[in-house]
């Protein structure tokens, strides 16, 4: 290949490879560990697979038809994974699981049909013709459906409203990137087949830069949130409350006896002032009451399952820094002391 072609291949292939690495990170290592990160990882996996196929087919037209089938099959999952990622950001696990069963049914049936009977080699004309158009239409419809689902958040951006939060900005960025990639893939017949891969690489690196330098450079035209003494509205509070509860359940920061509001706020990605406002105004709890709730629930679990541990040891294990504090908080929340709770167990 010529130097220009080598550079083109390197840039586009590197984007696909980095997308695969990021997909693994979000599926296995991202914190807090919950289903929205899982679907973001699966979305990146589907996109990277589709992009990877485009890159290698562009530079090697003799590529095995099996890889072409894999690439188009992955394309059928992009739209549903995008929608499920958006949905998971604002809904609980059970609701998201039910939604996943509905929205992944068609691409899963398509995947199994391609593996078991309708392979690319045997049904070449069908894959290259009507099925190709059907998959791209399916993708585009899901992009539109996701935009409709996010219409209130998108409206905040268009109107430059101040009552949206960091994860909403990130969600809009993910959606906008997918919208651009979808448009580019639909227009390759008028541009270049490699354009989709290049757009994916560019958007991926742009979002990576946002993550790296978000504290130094504002990446959104929206005015930063400044609530002052006003209560955060319910739409803005809902995703934050969900993220906070998920963080508490997955990472268990409350087990740290020295946990401070600033520490928890940093893990959540908001200011201490905003977290305080969320707890007091929107959840009706003080910081200590909220943290102690999780500590007491953890203590109850340990009392039930760890009979060999002393009550004092359980208190320290759950984040209390003294026996008296543990007993006082336990009785305040449950109406009985830890000793009485242990005696009441069957």
Keywords:
single chain, 346 residues, mainly alpha, Rhopdopsin 7-helix transmembrane proteins, Arc Repressor Mutant, subunit A, 2 domains, 16 helices, 0% strand
SSE topology:
Blueprint: H1 3-28, H2 35-59, H3 65-88, H4 93-103, H5 105-116, H6 124-149, H7 151-158, H8 166-186, H9 195-213, H10 234-251, H11 261-268, H12 272-282, H13 287-305, H14 311-317, H15 323-334, H16 338-344
Helix pairs in contact: 1-2, 1-9, 2-3, 3-4, 3-5, 3-6, 6-8, 8-9, 11-12, 13-14
Protein described:
The chain has 346 residues and is mainly alpha-helical. Helices cover 73% and strands 0% of the residues. The chain is elongated.
Summarize the structure.
Pfam families: HTH_18. Keywords: DNA-binding, Membrane, Transcription, Transcription regulation, Transmembrane, Transmembrane helix. It is built from 16 helices and no strands.
Q: What is the arithmetic mean of pLDDT?
A: 83
Strand percent estimate: under 5%
- Overall form: elongated
Per CATH, what is the topology of the largest domain? Rhopdopsin 7-helix transmembrane proteins
Ranges where pLDDT stays below 50 over 5 or more residues in a row are: 214-228
State the end-to-end CA separation.
Answer: 75 Å
CATH class of the largest domain: Mainly Alpha
Q: How many discrete structural domains?
A: 2
The whole-angstrom Rg is 25 Å
Number of helices: 16
Tell me the helix content.
over 70%
The name of the CATH architecture of the largest domain is: Up-down Bundle
> Largest sheet at a glance?
none
Order of helices and strands: HHHHHHHHHHHHHHHH
Annotation, overall tally of beta strands: 0
Q: Which structural category do the helix and sheet elements fall into? A: mainly alpha
Organism: Sediminicola luteus
Keywords: DNA-binding, Membrane, Transcription, Transcription regulation, Transmembrane, Transmembrane helix
InterPro entries: Homeodomain-like_sf, HTH_AraC, HTH_AraC-typ_CS, Tscrpt_reg_AraC-type_HTH
Protein name: HTH araC/xylS-type domain-containing protein
């Amino acid at each position: 290949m010529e130097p220009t072609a080598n550079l083109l291949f390197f840039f586009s292939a590197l984007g696909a490879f980095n997308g695969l690495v990021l997909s693994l990170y979000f599926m296995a290592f991202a914190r807090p560990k919950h289903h929205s990160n899982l679907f973001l990882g699966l979305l990146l996996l589907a996109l990277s697979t589709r992009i990877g196929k485009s890159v290698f087919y562009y530079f090697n037209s003799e590529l095995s038809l099996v890889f072409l089938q894999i690439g188009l099959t992955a394309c059928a999952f992009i739209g549903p994974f995008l929608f499920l990622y958006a949905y998971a950001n604002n809904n609980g696990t059970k609701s998201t699981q039910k939604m996943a069963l509905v929205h992944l049914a068609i691409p899963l049936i398509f995947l199994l049909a391609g593996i078991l009977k309708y392979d690319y080699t045997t049904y070449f004309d069908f894959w290259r013709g009507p099925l190709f158009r059907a998959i791209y239409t399916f993708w585009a419809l899901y992009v539109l459906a996701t935009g409709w689902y996010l219409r209130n958040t998108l409206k905040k951006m268009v109107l430059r409203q101040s009552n949206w939060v960091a994860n909403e900005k990130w969600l809009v960025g993910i959606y906008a990137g997918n919208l651009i990639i979808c448009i580019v893939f639909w227009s390759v017949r008028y541009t270049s087949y490699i354009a989709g891969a290049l757009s994916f690489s560019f958007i991926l690196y742009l979002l990576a830069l946002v993550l790296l330098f978000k504290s130094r450079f504002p990446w959104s035209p929206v005015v930063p949130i400044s609530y002052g003494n006003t209560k955060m509205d319910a739409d803005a509070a809902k995703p934050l409350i969900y993220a906070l509860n998920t963080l508490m359940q997955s990472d268990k920061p409350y087990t740290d006896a020295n946990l401070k509001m600033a520490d928890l706020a940093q893990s959540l990605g908001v200011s201490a002032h905003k977290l305080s406002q969320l707890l007091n105004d929107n959840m009706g709890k003080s910081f200590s009451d909220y943290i102690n709730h999780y500590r007491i629930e953890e203590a109850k679990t340990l009392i039930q399952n760890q009979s060999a541990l002393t009550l004092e040891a359980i208190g320290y294990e759950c984040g209390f820094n003294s026996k008296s504090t543990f007993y006082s908080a336990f009785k305040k929340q449950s109406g009985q002391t830890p000793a009485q709770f242990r005696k009441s167990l069957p």
